[in-house]
Amino acid sequence: MRSKIVAGNWKMNKNLEETEDLLVELAAKLPDTKAEVMVAPTFVNLAAAVRNLEASRIEVIAQNMHFAESGAYTGEISADMLLNIGVDTCIIGHSERRAYFGETDEILAKKVRTALEKGIRVMFCFGEELEDRKSGNHFNVVENQLKNALFSLDKTDWSKIILAYEPVWAIGTGETASPEQAQEMHAFIRKVISDVYDSSVASNVSILYGGSVKPGNAEEIFSKPDVDGGLIGGASLVSDDFVAIIKAI
Ligand SMILES: O=C[C@H](O)COP(=O)(O)O
């Protein structure tokens, strides 16, 4: 049975003091929900966030990790470093990593493999660009992203995978995929997974939607049968907005 999940990706926002303030607010305002609630602060504040949320059910997750175990990779963070501070879920493949840091499907496949070998749960992000959507190529693009990074995994690995479909044209733009567009793509993703693996893998994986989710549109998006929650950027930086989105699940 798949989980409902609402995750906040704070990206490169919030210094230490701001991080702690927001966590205190979120912990205090967290509504009663069966959904998993996650936040992904920047690397330098992860350890403090874990300590801050010790008594809370909000999970601290990472925004990225390297595929190598350790070594001469200046500026990078390993899976073991995350585990060592109590972080065992990591976002991999966010479109900003793909676009600004050259992360290819091949690199992402290696990251996913390392994460799973280390026991880190992967929140794998993917989604088409605006030109792909306009040309009607969005289903092919999404299928290839999944195939290149995930379809060599064993069936059993999928219990450690969360998917986050994020159409690039809807990220930080205020333009959201309609609930119908989100549902159509999520249903397609489940069908592709079912064809490659089987229907139990497809029905047990949580598929989140990300891209300009706000308090005003979350409920309608989350009401769709194949949408299991959201990966929230901008609106997760404001406690009342993030709490309202959690309430919508
Ligand atoms: O990781 C989150 C996504 O990039 C969505 O960001 P956004 O809610 O600011 O559009």
TrEMBL record:
Compartment(s) of residence: Cytoplasm
Record InterPro entries: Aldolase_TIM (IPR013785), TIM_sf (IPR035990), TrioseP_Isoase_bac/euk (IPR022896), Triosephosphate_isomerase (IPR000652), Triosephosphate_isomerase_AS (IPR020861)
An MF annotation (GO) of this entry: triose-phosphate isomerase activity
Binding site for substrate: N9, W10, K11, G172, S212, G233, G234
Pathway participation: Carbohydrate biosynthesis; gluconeogenesis; Carbohydrate degradation; glycolysis; D-glyceraldehyde 3-phosphate from glycerone phosphate: step 1/1
Summary of the function given for this chain in its UniProt record: Involved in the gluconeogenesis. Catalyzes stereospecifically the conversion of dihydroxyacetone phosphate (DHAP) to D-glyceraldehyde-3-phosphate (G3P).
Protein name in UniProt: Triosephosphate isomerase
